[in-house]
Design goal:
Length: 440
């Protein structure tokens, strides 16, 4: 511990995707290991505030700006650092702003701890002078989550017409296999029971002669009582042999596959790398291997030129696939993308109405899908004990479960009988009983 960090507090605010969450977790853990106090409460008093931003939509930008403005207003005398995708996309503008002290783009995010130490030591602290490295993150030992996020890939080469991510995350790059495996062994050694693979476009992972499918096989071969979850993915490049990996108990039967639209016309305008027909056939193959497989997705409504028929095609395909949940986004113009220049921009009221229709369908499908687990079993990783003394967590299909038994242990797997579906505070929740401790 150095004199500079004694009793200093670092507060984090993270917006956006799981990749951002992973990077924040790693930074928090690194600060904690050096003797700093760390917190996720940006309203609390702290010496440094680090805002890890998102810029995927206009709404994301606005959320990030609100956090920066609030932090400036409440904590003007503290050090304020903005990083992440908005910091990359609007780097020069933010440097000129009086809202933050340092602007750190994604390429230099791994150097934030060094930056803070240099600042308090009175040394030159220019983020751009530190080494660029998008993978130099240690696996987090101290996190605000019960799952361990592991970054295996960054960047994207697809250049969808609406998407700013290739600009702010760069071209696709894969983390060395041994680094990935080493990180997972570490977090399993720390006691984490679930590992979540994260990246911008996981399916494009390719390091030397190892592709994503082979990497997953090697991860599943690591000994230990843990399971593996794959986060958001693009629906291209999969083989039938990849789908068969889900027969292995350690690989959870849930993937977030980004459809975006059920209209072939709109998919072409978006420059997606697949057809709706291919997407639907892929989901059918997944459920041939694992009938209860939970497929969740993203859908963008109101893309330029989207007709009512296009909207009907999206709703019809969604209903046929029976998604476990849909994240709905209203299209927003991102400067510098091809879609910015497309004609037939859709009025905001139409986007809102179409978004509501998708949301209603999503809620119905989610409830129907989850009700199908009544009478079956789930292996639940207990995350917390609620105020009634019952254990809560997620089953392997990524569905929330409350176990109506007391004296169960957190960070422990239990196989439970699912007896009911009840309405929780925000969503339908499965009810489990007869908990038996379980090991993978």
């Amino acid at each position: 511990m150095t004199i500079s960090n004694l009793k200093k507090t670092i507060a984090f605010k993270t917006l956006g995707c799981r990749l951002n969450l992973f990077e924040t977790d790693s930074l928090m853990s690194e600060f904690a290991a050096k003797g700093y106090e760390v917190t996720n409460d940006v309203d609390a008093e702290a010496d440094v505030y680090i805002i890890n931003t998102c810029t995927v939509t206009n709404q994301s930008d606005q959320k990030s700006k609100r956090v920066m403005n609030r932090t400036k207003r409440l904590h003007d005398d503290s050090v304020k650092i903005v990083t992440g995708c908005m910091a990359t996309n609007y780097k020069e503008q933010l440097k000129e702003s009086d809202k933050v002290d340092y602007v750190v783009d994604n390429d230099h995010k791994t150097s934030i701890v060094e930056l803070v130490e240099a600042h308090f030591a009175g040394e030159t602290a220019d983020p751009d002078l530190f080494e660029k490295d998008v993978f130099n993150y240690e696996p987090a030992k101290t996190t605000a989550h019960t799952r361990a996020l592991i970054k295996i890939q960054d960047g994207c080469n697809n250049f969808c017409t609406y998407c700013i991510i290739p600009k702010v995350r760069g071209r696709a790059i894969s983390r060395p296999v041994e680094e990935v495996l080493k990180n997972i062994r570490k977090v399993v050694g720390y006691g984490f029971k679930e590992v979540v693979l994260t990246g911008v476009n996981l399916g494009t992972y390719h390091y030397e002669d190892i592709d994503f499918e082979e990497l997953v096989k090697q991860i599943l071969a690591i000994p230990g009582n843990f399971r593996v979850r794959i986060s958001s993915m693009e629906p291209d490049g999969f083989t039938d042999s990849f789908f068969k990996l889900f027969h292995q108990p350690k690989l959870t039967p849930h993937m977030h596959l980004c459809l975006q639209s059920g209209s072939e016309t709109i998919l072409k305008k978006m420059r997606r790398m697949y057809t709706g027909e291919f997407f639907e056939s892929m989901t059918e193959k997944l459920r041939e291997e694992v009938p209860d497989f939970n497929i969740t997705t993203d859908i963008i409504v109101g893309f330029p030129g989207e007709t009512e028929q296009d909207m009907q095609d999206t709703l019809a395909m969604s209903a046929r696939i029976n998604f476990g949940h849909i994240h709905t986004f209203k299209y927003s113009i991102r400067k510098g993308t091809r879609a910015e220049r497309l004609p037939e921009q859709i009025h905001g009221d139409v986007k809102t109405e179409r978004s509501e229709r998708v949301r209603e369908l999503s809620e119905k499908m989610r409830e129907d899908y989850r009700r199908g687990f009544v009478g079956k079993t789930q292996v639940v990783l207990v995350e917390r004990i609620n105020k009634e003394g019952f254990a809560t967590g997620y089953g392997e299909n990524y569905i929330p479960v409350v176990i109506r038994e007391k004296n169960l242990q957190t960070n422990t797997f239990y196989k439970v009988d699912i007896t009911d579906l009840i309405q929780g505070r925000d969503e339908p929740v499965l009810v489990g009983e007869k908990a038996v401790e379980y090991s993978y």
